[in-house]
Amino acid sequence: MQIHKDQIDSIRLLSLIGKVDDENAAVLQDHLQQDIQAGVRLVILDLRQVDYISSSGLGVISAKYISLDVREGCLVLAHLNPKIKRIFTLTKILQVIPHFDSVADAAGYLKALSRQQV
Questions:
Q1: Cα–Cα distance between 47 and 84 in angstroms, integer?
Q2: Which of 23, 91, 108, 116 sits 20 to 30 Å CA-CA off 55?
Q3: 99-100 and 74-78 as β-strands: parallel, antiparallel, unpaired?
Q4: In a domain, 115, yes or no
Q5: pTM score of the predicted model
């Protein structure tokens, strides 16, 4: 798995590429934890190029969603391909974590959310 980091205003964008499996879920966790410790409160995970996600990957995403939520932040998902969306749907994660068809829609949601919290 590769992780590309970008910034959209105060929003951290992590674009994941490849498989989020048991071996590299810890790498994703480390990236997210470093950002959270650095004060990042708004995160978009762009999953457009993810072709597999394990239960460990789902666990990391769910845990970091909760971690940000208790810090008055938010983690959202963008660009879920049909295969990955099915996994998130079956596990009912999409009932909790906001998800969007595009990074632009996700960023708009987070910007509006951050304005409400001010």
A1: 8
A2: 108
A3: parallel
A4: no
A5: 0.95
Sheet holding 11-20, edge to edge: 2-8, 11-20, 42-53, 74-78, 99-100
Tokens of 79: 């660009």
Domain membership of residue 7 as a residue range: 2-100
DSSP state of 76: E
Q: How far apart are CA 22 and CA 7, in angstroms?
A: 27
Of 104, 79, 80, the closest CA to residue 91 belongs to 80
Helix (H) or strand (E) holding 44: strand 42-53
Per-residue pLDDT of the chain (118 residues; tens, 9 = 90+): 999 999 999 999 999 999 999 999 999 999 999 999 999 999 999 999 999 999 999 999 999 999 999 999 999 999 999 999 999 999 999 999 999 999 999 999 999 988 886 5
- Do residues 3 and 30 make contact, with C-beta atoms less than 8 angstroms apart? no
Q: Residues 114, 63, 99, 44: what is their CA dihedral angle, to the nearest 10 degrees?
A: 60
